[in-house]
Write a structure and sequence with these properties.
Blueprint lengths: L7 H15 L7 E2 L2 H8 L3 H14 L2 E4 L3 E4 L3 H27 L4 H16 L1
Antiparallel strand pairs: 1-3, 2-3
């Protein structure tokens, strides 16, 4: 499941994020422990902890001392908002820049996007 394209701790954080967005880990539900993630993915517990702490720092996961880690209320909204912002940075901004370079108008780009959405429906 984990590949070599990103640091392992980031891949773990991305995996947990995807599971939260899919509903595998609903808000206020307990997630596996650091040791369970480490064992499942065959990684060092310190690496697993580093991945978990990314989500703790984002306010997506919180720790209950002596009990475990839980998905925070509002975690899905936080992740969706961050995903949308990243989508704009990674795709929309470069699209607009390239369209401008090619002399395409806003209407040209919107029509192309609309066509792509329609083609996906069919």
């Amino acid at each position: 499941m984990l590949t070599g394209d990103k640091p392992i701790f980031q891949q773990l954080a991305d995996h947990i994020t995807a599971e939260i967005l899919k509903g595998t880990y609903p808000e206020e539900s307990q997630i596996p422990s650091i040791n369970e993630f480490a064992e499942f993915f065959r990684i060092n517990p310190a690496t697993a902890n580093k991945g978990i702490n990314i989500l703790v720092n984002q306010g997506v996961i919180y720790k209950k001392r002596g009990i475990g880690m839980f998905v925070a209320t509002g975690a899905r909204a936080i992740l969706l908002d961050e995903g949308r912002q990243e989508f704009i940075r990674a795709f929309i901004s470069p699209l607009v820049n390239e369209a401008s370079t090619l002399g395409l108008s806003k209407d040209d780009v919107l029509a192309a996007v609309t066509d792509a959405f329609e083609a996906k429906k069919g």
